[in-house]
């Protein structure tokens, strides 16, 4: 069948800014492009408030992306695949909306068909491999391999297809890139644009959930697997884990209205001692399936005794570290709330990306579980800070609840999780602070916060007396009795506070908060300054000295002195 091909041809890093714009327009209120923001946000110039326009609600985006993913396949291709021939070959099954390539243990293509029927045709023409000396589980998934056994030359003498990056650049490259900017505001947008998820990466995340759903559907045909956390809340960094939620609500009838009187039928079900026990047994079975039959899923671990039981595994074709949970609707709600806050004002995402990156660079956060502050807690701290501005940038959660309509009503395990989902109902105040001011003030705010007495509460938008002795108390927005940072010990909190103070001080110094004369690509001199200097792990690197041995971390005052000296020396050499 001859079909027209509307291919989204993706190009390398040169066209990344285009992709970022697409992400912004797809997942956030359309503020104008990040590049536009960069142009208008000169240092010390008041922040220009962009007019509101209709941003899609969290669930609208979820439903659209889930539907798109259901029309998509993931194909492992030979490295030198000719894109045109590849698409011509696939288009015999129907029109293709979009296709992009990326690398992860080989070359892969994500192909989105215009219609779901195309997948039927594709499945009919796809064979189960016959492998000598081994047996295969005949599972017809949407993870496929392109083989070429005939005379057709798929490469056609061409080099490899252009691949979309799925990981970030190393921190030192980011520091270099940011140091070339001429304002801290531009550094912040450069950091965010470099780190944020691309539209393609988000599509791939939804596709992996959809592939997993095909496995879980063996038991629960009407289930949905939804991504949550930083994959969808607007704060995800390329390379972040993929948190997934096995949503059985459409089966459980949780959302169905029960008839008041008269006859009705109900399913007989197996009873479990508790909701937790039911979740554990569901995840145990699905985890087993993923382990035994899930193509590309490796290192499956069932972590069923955790507070939130989960199945953890690596999805090799996408390179994602995956956590599959069930019955975790509060986390879904938290993701929706963060998405809403991030979409209200573009400064929210910029500040969260900067603070997360700064915290990671100094090991305040870690990918390993422990007594550290988590990215989620850190994000809530940024939101709280933005609620606490003299002219608040963000409304309180209680206010968002007041604005909610009947459609927004949500009670989960007895907790009221209601808040407005429609962006247009939210009136923002006229705060015009620049990103540079906000970053500086963030460090001052938490460098002097009364952590010993006070709790952070974004529902009320003000600090409250601490109800327990944990060093850091951040009230869980939807489960008020819980502290989201209960794991954080005194030492980690002290490190955070000390680093906030040090960073606040550094940003006040002229040597740090102004670009050095002669900086820029033409001179090749890009001494770290501003936010870039705050990301420097040690003085030796700030001074451009590559030390083979890991240096012992020096006290803050020494670090700052060394950094200042190195910058002064550079300036003197130049003059
Ligand atoms: P990354 O570090 O980029 O993965 O950020 P993340 O936001 O995805 O964090 P993580 O993977 O640790 O958790 C996924 C989601 O679970 C978060 O976005 C929250 O919605 C939720 N979550 C994580 N920790 C907590 C917690 O302590 N309390 C509550 N209520 N939700 C949490
Ligand atoms: Mg996560």
General description of the model:
The chain starts with 15 loop residues before the first helix and ends with a helix. With 575 residues, the chain is an alpha+beta fold. Helix 2 runs antiparallel to helix 7 and helix 3 (58-70) packs across helix 8. The strands form 4 sheets. The chain has a 5-stranded mixed β-sheet with strand order 5-6-9-8-7, sandwiched between helices. The protein has a 4-stranded mixed β-sheet with strand order 2-3-1-4. A two-stranded antiparallel ribbon has the order 10-11. The chain contains 20 helices and 13 strands. It has helices spanning 16-27, 34-40, 58-70, 83-90, 117-124, 171-179, 184-195, 199-216, 249-252, 275-293, 329-344, 346-361, 375-387, 397-402, 435-447, 490-508, 510-513, 530-534, 539-542, 556-574, and strands spanning 72-77, 96-103, 107-113, 143-145, 224-228, 242-247, 297-303, 310-315, 320-326, 411-412, 415-416, 454-455, 464-465. Helix content is 39%, strand content 11%. The protein is globular. Guanosine-5'-triphosphate binds at residues 228-230, 233, 236, 240-241, 243, 330-331, 334-335, 374-376, 476, 484. Guanosine-5'-triphosphate (GTP) binds at residues 228-230, 233, 236, 240-241, 243, 330-331, 334-335, 374-376, 476, 484.
């Amino acid at each position: 069948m001859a079909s027209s091909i509307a291919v989204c041809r993706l190009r390398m890093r040169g066209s990344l800014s285009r992709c970022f714009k697409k992400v912004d327009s797809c997942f956030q209120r359309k503020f104008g492009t990040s590049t536009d923001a960069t142009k208008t946000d000169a240092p010390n110039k008041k922040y220009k408030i962009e007019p509101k326009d209709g941003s899609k609600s969290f669930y609208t985006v979820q439903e659209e992306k889930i539907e798109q993913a259901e029309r998509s396949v993931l194909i492992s291709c030979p490295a030198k695949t000719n894109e045109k021939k590849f698409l011509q070959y696939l288009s015999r099954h129907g029109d293709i909306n979009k296709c992009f390539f990326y690398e992860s243990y080989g070359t892969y293509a994500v192909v989105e068909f215009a219609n779901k029927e195309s997948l039927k045709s594709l499945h009919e023409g796809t064979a189960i491999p016959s492998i000598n000396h081994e047996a295969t589980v005949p599972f017809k998934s949407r993870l496929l391999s392109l083989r070429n056994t005939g005379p057709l030359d798929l490469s056609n003498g061409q080099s490899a297809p252009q691949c979309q990056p799925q990981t970030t650049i190393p921190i030192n490259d980011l520091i270099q890139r940011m140091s070339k900017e001429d304002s801290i505001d531009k550094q912040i947008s450069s950091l965010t644009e470099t780190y944020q998820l691309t539209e393609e990466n988000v599509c791939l995340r939804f596709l992996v959930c959809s592939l997993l759903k095909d496995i879980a559907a063996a038991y629960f045909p009407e289930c949905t697997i939804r991504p949550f956390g930083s994959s969808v809340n607007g704060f995800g960094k390329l390379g972040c884990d993929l948190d997934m939620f096995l949503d059985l609500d459409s089966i459980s009838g949780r959302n169905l209205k029960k008839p008041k009187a008269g006859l009705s039928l109900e399913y007989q079900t197996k009873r479990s001692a508790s909701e937790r026990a039911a979740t554990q047994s569901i995840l145990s079975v699905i985890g087993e399936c993923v382990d035994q039959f899930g193509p590309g899923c490796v290192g499956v671990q069932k972590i069923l005794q955790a507070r939130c039981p989960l199945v953890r595994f690596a999805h090799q074709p996408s390179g994602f570290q995956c956590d599959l949970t069930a019955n975790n609707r509060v986390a879904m709600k938290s993701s929706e709330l963060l998405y809403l806050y991030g979409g209200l004002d573009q400064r929210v995402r910029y500040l969260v990306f900067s603070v997360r990156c700064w915290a990671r660079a100094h090991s305040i956060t870690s990918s390993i579980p422990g007594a550290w502050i988590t990215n989620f807690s850190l994000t809530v701290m940024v939101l709280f800070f933005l609620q606490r501005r003299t002219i608040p940038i963000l409304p309180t959660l209680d206010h968002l609840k007041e604005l909610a309509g009947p459609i927004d009503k949500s009670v989960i395990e007895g907790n009221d999780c209601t808040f407005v989902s429609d962006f247009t109902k939210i009136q923002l105040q006229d705060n015009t602070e620049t990103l540079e001011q906000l970053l500086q003030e963030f460090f001052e705010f938490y460098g002097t916060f009364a952590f010993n007495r006070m709790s952070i509460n974004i529902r009320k938008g003000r600090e409250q007396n601490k109800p327990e002795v944990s060093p850091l108390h951040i009230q869980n927005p939807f489960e008020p009795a819980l502290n989201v940072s209960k794991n954080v010990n005194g030492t980690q909190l002290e490190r955070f506070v000390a680093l906030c103070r040090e960073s606040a001080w550094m940003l006040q110094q002229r040597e740090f908060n102004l670009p050095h004369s002669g900086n820029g690509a033409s001179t090749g001199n890009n001494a770290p300054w501003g936010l870039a200097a705050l990301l420097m792990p040690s003085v030796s690197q700030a001074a451009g000295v590559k030390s083979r041995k890991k240096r012992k971390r020096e006290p803050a005052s020494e670090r700052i002195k060394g950094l200042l000296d190195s910058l002064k020396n550079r300036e003197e050499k130049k003059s």
